[in-house]
Amino acid sequence: MAKKNYAVIGFYGYRENQLDGQTIKTRCLKDTLEDIVEAPIYSLDTGDSRKKPIRILLKIVYAFLRYQRIYILPNINGLKYLLPVYHWLSAVTRTEVEYVVIGGWLYSFLQKNPNLLKHFYFLKTIHVETVKMVQDLSTIPNLTINHLPNFRHFKAGVFTGKRIKANSGLKCLFLARVRRDKGIEICIDAVNSLLDQGANISLDIYGGIEESYSDAFYSKIKGNKNILYKDCIDPFADDFYTVINQYDVLVLPTYYEGEGFPGTFLDAFIAGLPIVASDWKYNAQLVEHEKTGLIIKPKSSDSLVDALDRLIRNPDTFAELSQNAIQESYNYHAETLIRGIL
Fold first, then answer.
1. The whole model's pTM is what?
2. Is there a contact between 174 and 187 (Cβ–Cβ < 8 Å)?
3. What are the pLDDT digits (tens) for 205-239?
C-alpha cells in the first residue's frame, strides 16, 4: 500500500482545550498543512501518553506505517521517552521524521542529556525558532538544523497602524501563561507605579494560570479595577485579532528559562501592537528595539515603568512602532514558511 504524505504528532491539548505555545503551534502546523495540500492531515495527540500509553504507541506505529513524512513537536518528556521509539520505527519503515522545535530549551537539554543525542541523528531536519538556536545547535556535529521562525495563520492587511487615543490612556495587554517567571508581577508593579504617578493606564491579563501560582496571583490583583484578569482567549476564534487590536501595547518582561520565540509576539505584530519585552534569551533578536518595540532590563519593574511612560509621552513614537509591527508580521505567515519546509 502506497504511503500518504504527511502526519503531525504532538500535544494538541484538545481534551481540556489547553491553549499555550505548545498546543497553538502544533495545531497551526497541522491546519496550515491541510490548507496547502487541500486534504486532511493525520494528527496524533500525545497528551494521553501517560494515561493510555499502549493506545498512543499503536497510533504512532500506524502513522509510521502509513505516512511518508512525519512532523513531530514533542515536549521534554516526549524527547526522553518517545524519540527513541520514533528512531527505531523510522529505521524499520524508512519514514522521514522532521522535528519542529517549540521553545528555546533544546540546546541546553542536549548538554544535560548527551546520552539522548544518538537518537537525534536520524532526524531529517531539526527546525528551530531563532538564528541563535541555529548557531548553538550547529556546533553539534551531524545534525541538520534549519531556521523556521514561529508562525501564525492570519489574513494580512486587516489592521493599520495604531495611535494612542488621548482620552483612553494606555491599554496594556499581557497575553501568555500566567506564572511568575513570565514577568506578570513585574507588569503589575509597573502599572501600579504609573497609576500612583497619576498616569491613565490599565492592564488586562489573558492566559491560563499556573496552578501552583493561582492564589498568589489573585492576591496580587485583588481589588484593583485597573488590572483585570480576563481568563483565556481562543487564538483560533474569528475575532481573536480584533480583540487584541483593542489594546495599545503588549508587555512581556519574561525571565522564563525555556523561552524561545513567544507566539504572543506574533499576535501583537499582526494586530499592530508595539511590544515591551525584557532583554532575555532571544527577545532582542525578535523585537527590534525602537523599531517594533522597546527592550528593557530583565527583572526590572522600573525599566518597564520608564518604557511605558515613554510611550504615553511620545504618541508619534508609538504610532511608528505600531506601523512597523504590522510590517514585521508579514515575515511570519504560516503558509509561506511551511511551504518552505515541504
1. 0.92
2. yes
3. 999 999 999 999 999 999 999 999 999 999 999 99
